[in-house]
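[Automated response] Your request has been received and processed.

Submitted sequence:
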Amino acid sequence: MNAAPARTVRAAVLRRPGDPLRVEEVRLDPPRAGELLVRIEAAGVCHTDQHYMAGDLPSLLPAVVGHEGAGIVEAVGDGVSRVEPGQRVCLLWRPRCGECRYCVTGSPALCERAVVQSTYGGLLDGTSRLRLADGGNLHHLMGASCFAQYAVVSERAVVAVPDDVPPEIAAIAGCAVITGVGAVLNAIGACAGQSLVVFGAGGVGLSSVMGARLAGANPVIAVDVVADRLGAALELGATHVVDASDADVLAELRRLVPGGLDNAIEAIGRPETLALAFESLRPQGQLVPVGLSRPDTTLSVPLNQVVQREKRIVGSLYGSSNPVVDLPRIFGLYRSGRLPLDGLLGARYPLGRINDAYDDLCRGAVGRGVVLPWAA
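Generated structure:
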């Protein structure tokens, strides 16, 4: 069905951990049964890719990186029924197989088939549609590989996007927004009138701030070391901010909320910050970590506080979301003006400047940077 021939595309390739990304011409095979060819319009600059680039998280290399993207379906493989050519879609870095225990019980972020993609560096069948120009092996990252002009992805790893949602918004919604907003709406749940602190005001942290405002949390406090990021947090819904570069964070939080916080979200992935967030909670308070770190990173918290004060730590992957339900809801909230995602967007970069995008990210750039693969 409308399957395109193999083509040469420009893509950002990670060959070795610690090396800069190389924008190369690579070969992309046509979609197979149940797969789509997507012309990538925009791709978000997420810190998770940086973890793979630095070697903090393991992956099969060389690989085309990028997992937060959106584009237009150009061709479909046999058996595709959910989307058609010409339709705009948001990519999901977690597929929804629809058959494993997590998918059928409403937790597709934990889909068991996702392990196939990460283990073999391919799509859901474990094989790759990518090849180096010389014919050598080339892997997918998280089943997306959207720092490229085109990507082949599973039909089960996309959600339709309304035509009036800009590509940049659609791209960041598929990772940063659904992770941050979902951490509030799904992992924390009803929190109107409850206090909430967000540690880290990057793309996910700022999305958590927007989610907290949407849910009616009060006060909403953002903690970061970059003043401009804290300014963005105030614009997007924080009632208070704490500059961790020159303040005693715990003392300031206790001043703002005597007795401790009801809820804390940690969007950085640092044990020290997680421990601080845990300490800031009141009895029966809840900490929701959403930031990633190295696989061997551990968290140490006082056991007696867990038992005697009934504090809880509940992890949240992908915003504990059901993307086929939550992303349309996010798009609807954006279109109605209740989720001001335009304020989350940062700088735009052509594909050839992708290393600049990650340099800016590591220096504390404000907002979510976006790569435009077709920009000059």
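Summary generated for your ticket: The two ends are 32 Å apart (CA to CA). The first helix runs from residue 47 to 54.
If you did not submit this request, please reply to this message.
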